[in-house]
Design brief:
Elements (H helix, E strand, L loop, with lengths): L2 E5 L3 H13 L3 E5 L2 H11 L4 E5 L1 E2 L2 E2 H11 L5 E5 L4 H9 L4 E4 L4 H13 L19 E2 L10 E3 L2 E3 L4 H13 L6 E5 L5 H10 L8 E5 L8 H6 L16 H4 L4 E5 L6 H13 L1 E2 L8 E2 L3 E6 L3 H6 L5 H7 L3 E4 L9 H16 L5 E2 L1 H9 L5 H15 L4 E2 L6 H4 L1 H4 L19 H7 L11 H19 L4 H7 L4 H15 L2
């Protein structure tokens, strides 16, 4: 039974928390003063969680948090206060608090926060991996790693160690408790929806629905029905009344991904929803009141889209209350293995395996690969590798060909050759390619070799235009991926002769 220490100088709050938590299977201890709380921590020693009021008699929450963390750094602490101060929220999170919630406390919210904190607590250290033939020790999956800075979204965690990611953490903590509209910019697969879920979880709407819509998947004809619903008989095929996504999200948060794909007509309807907080179902005559927080995401700048006439400028200004930038994974390499280990842990759970980690070779490959598909691509690669792995560590033979051979498949200028190894991490790939001169012809009088040279120029151009996404380059060249790989391999062989 998890043991929780409740620290609050309001005896009524302590009584209510004790009654509520006991009902949900927790053992609780109470303290009305900071001094007594610290004594209890020393006496009992095996608390799983601390709920601490920010304003105690003679001591503020920051001081109390520091004293607890000094002695028990791994013990999760949730700060509770009646003052919704965003700066304080950011400060206590940076100091190690698991979360920061404001009074009045909502039962579902506080219970979810407690469960999240307990799930993130380290309970056992992973066993050290043995050295094999004097090689470097592979990093292992730590099932109970430090997740104080992690996010939870429907059981999935997003976490990172890079300074860029920690800045995103601060922004989420800052904007979460507000009702601001938020624009999240980032490439496909970079985790925009999970960040939106985390913003929702940290808001007062957390106990209400979170509804996510991929606007890129909505057809022009049915977008209005999907978002706003329709009445029976509103159009051919509307045999029943349909409740739209905005109604489903009422009271909570709606997340509109790739919003720039919505048609002009739908954008007009959306503007009315934001301005008047009302909507009508397609074919309906009655206004429906809405109380919905809107978070949107895009992989292109909405201001640029507005200047091109693709997106309404007035709608952009309505949404542009707060912006979060999510850099691609290739620009925060410190996070790659953190995410990879997490995805491996999840794959272990799904496959009932106990793979302990990645070999040094695989870690090196992961760190040097570009990850055009970002977290989504990394997750799928790790899942596939876990399925193919029989031993304790994921080896490079379990990776897809295009990833394990990525360095060999890149074009790089090296003297007269542009078909050598991949560029170092310090030199961006696109810069290396952009400055590489064309390879000297294989032969002066060979029509076949002249044709190969022309092919080489076309493939190089297609790769540069698609930022080295080989699937897109293959489509641009009207060939399949396998053919593209074979041609790249041919150029490597010819150039090495």
């Amino acid at each position: 039974m998890p043991k929780i220490l409740v620290i609050d100088d309001d005896r009524d709050i302590c009584f209510l928390m004790n009654k509520f938590l006991t009902k949900h299977g927790f053992e609780t201890h109470e303290s009305y003063t900071a001094k007594k709380a610290l004594e209890l921590l020393d006496e009992v020693t095996d608390f799983d969680l601390v709920l601490c009021d920010y304003r105690l008699e003679g001591v503020d929450g920051k001081t109390m948090l520091l004293k607890i963390k000094e002695k028990y750094p791994a013990l999760p602490v949730i700060i509770i206060t009646g003052y919704n101060d965003l700066k304080t929220a950011v400060d206590v999170m940076k100091m190690g608090a698991y979360d920061y919630v404001t009074k009045p406390l909502f039962p579902e919210e506080i219970l979810n926060t407690i469960q999240g904190a307990l799930n993130s607590t380290p309970t056992a250290a992973a066993k050290p991996a043995p050295h094999v033939n004097g090689s470097a020790t592979p990093h292992q999956v730590d099932d109970h790693g430090d997740k104080k800075k992690s996010f939870s979204a429907n059981g999935e965690y997003i976490f990172g160690s890079s300074p860029v990611f920690q800045q995103i953490v601060d922004q989420i903590v800052l904007v979460g408790p507000t009702d601001y509209s938020v624009i999240i910019y980032g490439e496909s697969g970079s985790g925009k929806e999970a960040i939106a879920q985390e913003i929702h979880k940290r808001s007062k709407r957390a106990s209400y629905p979170f509804v996510a819509i991929d606007c890129g998947a909505l057809s022009k004809e049915l977008a209005g029905s999907e978002l706003f619903g329709h009445e029976k008989g509103a159009f051919t095929g509307a045999i029943n009344q349909k409740v739209g996504s905005f109604e489903l999200a009422n009271g909570g948060t709606i997340f509109l991904d790739e919003i720039a794909n919505l048609s002009y007509e739908i954008q007009v309807s959306l503007l009315r929803v934001i301005q008047e907080r009302k909507m009508r179902r397609v074919g309906g005559t009655k206004d429906i009141s809405l109380d919905v927080r809107i978070i949107i995401a895009s992989n292109e700048r909405l201001w640029d889209a507005a200047q091109k006439g693709k997106f309404r400028e007035d709608l952009f200004h309505r949404f542009n209350e707060f912006t979060i930038e999510v850099p691609p994974l290739r620009q925060r390499k410190e996070d790659i293995m953190v995410f990879a280990r997490h995805f491996l842990q999840k794959a272990n759970e799904g496959l009932h395996k106990r793979i302990r980690g990645f070999s040094p070779e695989v870690e090196e490959i992961f760190k040097n690969y570009v990850w055009h598909g970002n977290l989504r691509e990394l997750k799928n690669v790790v899942k596939r590798a876990a399925l193919l792995t029989d031993g304790d560590f994921v080896e490079d033979r379990s990776l897809p060909f295009e990833i394990s051979n990525y360095r060999k498949l890149l074009f790089e200028h090296n003297g007269d050759s542009v078909l050598e190894a991949a560029p170092t991490a310090a030199v961006p790939i696109h810069e290396t390619i952009a400055t590489a001169p064309l390879r000297k012809p294989f032969g002066e009088n060979s029509l076949k070799e002249a044709s190969i040279d022309l092919e080489y120029e076309m493939i190089l151009k297609a790769l540069k235009e698609t930022n080295f996404n080989k699937s897109k380059a293959a489509r641009l060249l009207n060939i399949d991926r396998k053919t593209l790989y074979n041609k790249i391999k041919l150029y490597q062989e010819l150039n090495n002769r």
